[in-house]
Structures are given as structure tokens and as C-alpha cells.
Design brief:
Elements: E1 4-12, E2 17-24, E3 31-37, H1 52-60, E4 64-68, H2 78-100, E5 102-112, H3 114-125, E6 132-136, H4 145-148, H5 162-167, H6 180-192, H7 195-200, E7 227-232, H8 241-252, E8 257-262, H9 285-303
Parallel strand pairs: 3-4, 3-5, 5-6, 6-7, 7-8
Antiparallel strand pairs: 1-2, 2-4
Length: 304
């Protein structure tokens, strides 16, 4: 598939310039758009993590894809990261029609893992609200024990010392964090149950009220956008219950939604093989089928 990729600076802060990659097929027709948010625990990763075969699927279905960076923790705390989300969303709506021919009123948000969390935050954090949200193995509660207590899964890994953990972070704000050192910091946070405190600047054990505005599941109202959740039932990073609980709350508020349970899959099921070492990504029949449902959901709530 032949498509164009353009890189823009959508926001400049005192510390850094924050970029967006726009993927678009040739032509002048106005298209609906997808704002895509990468994962990495809000600590590592960048906009280039979007998989090419998924970009092509979205493009073939008639969407322009905008993958944005955002500042990373712990240098930047969650409140400011969410400001980047809002500013990126606003930039797509304001500048997108002229720069890359998108329809600002047909905009979905899609994210994976921590990007899935940010996607669910977009359901009440941005205005006007997106036409649809699609969260791949995201989470609606960042103060629960799964994040605020030591992770049994990650505690099986060799212990990371504080000295090693903090060696790779600190200083000025960054938006592209692919180093092994940042992964070690994330691992340390999960082993110690420190992720919520390091990312938000608040302690969930002594300042629980500070997390009300940071948990999507606590902010669902009847005008929350239609939401599609995809999650592996053997996820050892983000518990499957994070999506099943979101689905239950969406149902309670009568929000159009769907939960796709990826049986036998762990975290990053569209990136890593399943427990049997099956083909990766869209080459796996079950993943391909799930992605078809993603496109159907988009067509129903965004394209029409």
C-alpha cells in the first residue's frame, strides 16, 4: 500500500517539542480520523510504536491516522500528560482539516495499554467528546491494588534496586523513551507498587481523593462515548478485570459498548505471540478477527 507520512510539531513546551505522525492515503477527499496513543506505562515508548499493518488496515478502511507523542513520567506528571492529550486532540480538530483533510466531527481515539488508559480518559477529558473510543488492554482504575501494591507477576523478575531504577530517569521532560533504563524504572515501580505515586505525584494510600479525576471508571456518565474494549484473559501486566469492570460500568450507564475477550492471550496480544507461539499480530486468525470487529465498530460510530 502506498501512503504518505507527515510529521508535525503539535505543541511546544518550555522543555520540548511534541510531535505527531500523520498517515494518509493520496487524495483530497475529507476523511474521518483516528487519534492513536502509544503504550509504555506512561514511562517509555513513543508515537512510532504503531504497527504498520494496523496503519494499513485503518487507511484501507478510509481513515487518516494521527499518532502523537506525549511527555513521559516521571519527569512529567499525569496532569501535564493529560494536557498533552487534550492539546493533541484539539490540534487534530483545529489544524487537521487544512493540513491533512480530516473531518473534525468524525474523530475516534484508539490506544494500547497506557495508551488505552489515555483513550478511556479522553472519554471525559476532551471536548467535544470523540465519536468512539477503542482501548486495547487498557485500564480504568490507576489507584487499585494491581498498580498500588507490588505486582506478583513482576516480583518474579530479578529485583531492581532504587539506584538502578532512578539512574535512567529524571531531568528535563522527554517524549521519546525507548531505553532499557526506562523499562527498568517501570519494572521497579511495579515491583514496589509505586507506579501511581511516581506517575501522578500523589500517594494513593494517603491521598485517595486525588485519583478521582484520573480514573475513567469513576467518571462515566450517560454522555460517555461508545467504547470498544479488547483484552487478553491471561494478561499478567494489566488484569483482564480492568476491562470487564469498565464494561460493567458502561452497561450500567447504558453506553454503547463491546468487550472482546481474547481467550488465551496475554498483554500486547496484537504484538506478541500467544502461549503456543502462534503467528504474531494480524497473521493470527483470532487477532485478525478481533481487528475486523474494530473496523466494524469504527464504521458504525465514526464513519456513518
Amino acid at each position: 500500500m502506498t501512503y504518505a507520512k507527515y510529521t508535525y510539531i503539535y505543541k511546544t513546551t518550555q522543555d520540548c517539542q511534541i510531535q505527531a505522525d500523520v498517515y494518509r492515503l493520496p487524495g483530497e477527499a475529507q476523511q474521518p480520523a483516528i487519534l492513536w496513543l502509544h503504550g509504555g506505562g506512561l514511562i517509555f515508548g513513543d508515537r512510532t510504536r504503531i504497527r504498520p499493518e494496523q496503519v494499513e488496515q485503518y487507511l484501507a478502511a478510509g481513515y487518516t491516522v494521527v499518532s502523537i507523542d506525549y511527555r513521559l513520567a516521571p519527569e512529567t506528571k499525569l496532569q501535564a500528560i493529560l494536557e498533552d492529550l487534550k492539546d493533541g486532540y484539539d490540534w487534530v480538530r483545529r489544524q487537521g482539516p487544512a493540513l491533512f483533510q480530516i473531518d473534525p466531527d468524525r474523530l475516534a481515539v484508539i490506544g494500547h495499554s497506557a495508551g488505552g488508559y489515555l483513550t478511556l480518559m479522553a472519554g471525559f477529558w476532551v471536548d467535544p467528546r470523540p465519536k468512539a473510543l477503542i482501548s486495547f488492554y487498557g485500564y480504568g482504575d490507576i489507584a487499585g491494588e494491581w498498580y498500588s501494591r507490588p505486582s506478583p507477576h513482576y516480583c518474579k523478575e530479578p529485583a531492581v534496586s532504587p539506584e538502578v531504577a532512578y539512574q535512567g530517569v529524571g531531568g528535563t521532560a522527554i517524549t521519546e523513551g525507548q531505553s532499557d533504563q526506562r523499562w527498568l524504572f517501570y519494572l521497579y515501580c511495579r515491583q514496589q507498587g509505586l507506579w501511581p505515586k511516581e506517575v501522578t505525584g500523589y500517594d494513593p494510600h494517603t491521598e485517595p481523593q486525588a485519583f478521582e479525576r484520573f480514573c475513567p471508571i469513576r467518571n462515566i456518565t450517560p454522555d460517555y462515548p461508545p467504547t470498544l474494549l479488547l483484552h487478553g484473559d491471561e494478561d499478567t501486566d494489566v488484569p483482564f478485570e480492568q476491562s470487564s469492570q469498565m464494561a460493567a460500568s458502561l452497561k450500567q450507564h447504558q453506553i454503547p459498548h463491546q468487550l472482546i475477550t481474547m481467550k488465551g492471550f496475554g498483554h500486547g496480544f496484537d504484538v506478541f505471540p500467544d502461549r503456543n507461539g502462534a503467528p504474531i499480530g494480524l497473521k493470527h486468525p483470532q487477532v485478525a478477527e478481533a481487528f475486523e470487529k474494530v473496523l466494524v465498530f469504527l464504521k458504525e460510530h465514526v464513519s456513518n
